[in-house]
Amino acid sequence: MKRKSIWIICHYATPRKYGYGTRQFLLAEEYLKMGYEVTVFASPSNYQLNKVPPLRGLFTKETINGVETVWVWGIRYSNPAGLKRVLSWFIFSFLLLFYPSGRKNLPGIIVVSSLSLVSVINGLFLKLRSPKSQFIFEIRDIWPLTLTDIGGYSRYNPLVLLLGWIEKAGYRKADNIVATMPRADLHIRNRIGSDFNFTCIPQGLDLYNADSDTELTDEERKMIFPDGGFIIGYAGALGRSNSLDTLVNSARIINDMGIRNIYFILLGDGSEKDHLVSLAKGLGNVRFIPRIPRKKVHSFLKYCTVLHDSVLPVGLYQYGLSRNKWMDYMYSGKPVVVSYSGHISLINEADCGQFVPAGDAEKLAQAILHYHKMDSDQLRIIGQRGRDFVINNRSFAKLASEYVKIFRY
Question: Could you give phi then psi for residue 181, rounded to 5 degrees?
């Protein structure tokens, strides 16, 4: 067993080379600076990759910024809600069981990061082969609760039952459980009822990518933003779980009040776009902008006045949320209003905006009008608090330093 060696297993881990760098690779780069050897196991079937790495057999090794990367062969898919996605989870974990590694080469630290939960099987297998290794189970979404609360699946669905069994096995056998949600410990206790080692290490902000992003052109800005408008911006997926009906309904409330200089701009695409466009019919204060390159999103956010996010009013969120979107919003230096009913964090900690009840368009409209009455200096001070907070507390160097505190080696 190599004590100062870390294996990170995550189906959706993405290096900057092939897309927008994800948590696992960004933490791995920080661990390297601390003297660890790091290997990341990921799947080329990840639909979020901008380009697919060249593959040579079942396992393809590639060193990326010093991080040894092992691409485990998988099937590509385009529909994130389709059966091929689920199949890709099982293929990844099954093949990884046969990854050639001698007992002496096994790592001192094994991190399995969801999604997918199926990879927990690999963590359990490696722990069995090397009992002195430290098995860390990282959860970034509470599955299968996400399937039942948001996806509408029955709790007796075979996939839900299987994932539930894997989830409990991971909780029971892990030496440490890490979650991005601040009160995930309540869920874990409900699931296993026994003692466990829990640490909340939230999502982080990639300062390198944020600082090197691309500006919108003058033509793009003129196409997106009306002159002199007070802009309520949203950037992300237009899906059911994003609950953007609330934002459109608040736009109608403000429009009916006769206020004409507040504009709602929704940037992105998704399964609910046609529905939202229909809901906004007749409203001159709502604009839908197609998805733009990820590297231009920070520039879009910078030209908005207030930024919005929303989720469904479901019990899942009693355990909290740690959204990458919130950190992108805060880094832009703008006040943030979130339609959310659950355990609150981040926005309130930084005092850079407010939460309103999920699904309540009236309360959202009131919050927007609250900021509409402020002058530019007041808005800037609020937004700057958020920016300072994420820079000081959510960099990956900071998060990696929190992570190593629980490392055994």
Answer: -85, 130
Look at residues 50, 68, 65 and name the one whose alpha carbon lies nearest to residue 8: 68
Q: Is 261 exposed, middle or buried (0-12, 13-18, 19+ CB in 10 A)?
A: exposed
State the span(s) of the chain assigned CATH 3.40.50.2000: 2-204+394-404, 208-393
Answer yes or no: are the C-beta atoms of 84 and 47 closer than 8 Å.
no
Question: What's the pLDDT band for 152 if we cut at 50, 70, 90?
Answer: confident
Dihedral angle sign, alpha carbons of residues 186, 192, 197, 200? negative
Classify the C-alpha dihedral 61-57-80-294 as positive or negative.
positive
**Largest alpha-carbon pair distance within the chain?**
72
Whether 312 shows a pLDDT value over 80: the answer reads: yes
β strands within 80-222, DSSP E: 107-113, 134-139, 176-179, 198-200
Q: Which of 392, 292, 397 is CA-nearest to residue 352?
A: 392
On whether the 208-393 domain is CATH 3.20.20.30, my answer is: no
Tell me how far apart the alpha carbons of residues 200 and 249 are, in angstroms, rounded to a whole number: 35
Task: List, in sequence order, every beta strand (DSSP E) within 224-361.
Answer: 230-235, 262-267, 286-289, 306-310, 336-339, 353-356
Average pLDDT of span 88-114: 93
96: pLDDT strictly greater than 90? yes
Give residue 7's pLDDT.
98
Six-digit token string for 317: 């969120």
**Domain boundaries 2-204+394-404, CATH class:** alpha beta
Q: Is pLDDT at 209 greater than 80 in this prediction? A: no
Tens digit of pLDDT for each residue in 263-298?
999 999 999 999 999 999 999 999 999 999 888 999
The helix (H) or strand (E) run that includes residue 170 is helix 158-173
Question: Which amino acid would we find at residue 304?
Answer: C
